[in-house]
Amino acid sequence: MNTTIDYLPYLFQGVYYSVGLGALSFACAALVGLFLAVIRDKASFVGKSLINTYVSVFRAMPELLTILLTYYGSVALSHYTGLPELSPFAAALLAFSVQIGSYACQIFSDAYRALPRGLMEAAHAIGMPEYLVNFRIAIPLMLRLAAPSLGNLLLVVIKLTAISSAIGVVELTRRAQIVAGATHDPLTVFGYAAVIYLVVLAVLTFLQRRLETAKQI
């Protein structure tokens, strides 16, 4: 009979799914949030209202509910239209990207409001097109100002990947559930999973602080 130790390689494989799903979701969410934050200030009343509604709705929704609605919504859509349904991984990626994008939008919006207005006005005064002002001035400064909050958001997303096990994504938490069922030793198994999460997040936190220190230098 296999012991819990024998399943450790299987548990470690789940780290790739957890970190991979978290990193991809974070990257997509950051792009969504950055795009919406940039256009939010210049958007029409209707555009601003739609963006504000999106941010308000998804910041209020529980992440688990968003994942369940995305996955089972794709199943229902496939049943009625014949379109292929989303895999659990794809559904989790889409749900996280959309929901975390609302948080990223707020972070980037705060960074946008903190930009020096004189610098932006000077760029417009010399005839620089709006897209160049954004790409050369606004976005680089926004990324710099938002970096600490974005680093914390990445850590949150990595932890949130655990709830994707509810739709069958075989990441670290789901693998721990499987191993606990096989060994009948859930306390030890979930203890190992907790330690693995702590190590991964400690490494990411260390890298985040090193990047912030390098920027200050």
Descriptive account of the structure:
The structure is a single chain. This protein is an all-alpha fold and 217 residues long. It has eight helices and no strands. It has helices at residues 8-40, 45-60, 63-81, 88-113, 117-125, 130-160, 172-183, 186-216. Helix 1 (8-40) runs antiparallel to helix 7, helix 1 crosses helix 8 (186-216) and helix 2 (45-60) packs across helix 4. The radius of gyration is 21 Å and the shape is flat. The termini are far apart. The relative contact order is 0.16.
Question: What is the gist of this entry?
Answer:
The protein has 217 residues and is an all-alpha fold.
Q: Can you give keywords for this protein?
A:
8 helices; mainly alpha; 217 residues
* Cα radius of gyration in angstroms: 21 Å
Overall mean pLDDT: 90
State the secondary-structure class.
mainly alpha
Question: How would a crystallographer describe the biggest sheet?
Answer: none
Q: How many helices in DSSP terms?
A: 8
Order of helices and strands: HHHHHHHH
Strand content bin: under 5%
- The count of strands amounts to 0
Q: How helix-rich are the residues, as a percent range?
A: over 70%
Unreliable parts: none
3D shape: flat
Task: State the distance separating the first and last CA atoms.
Answer: 55 Å
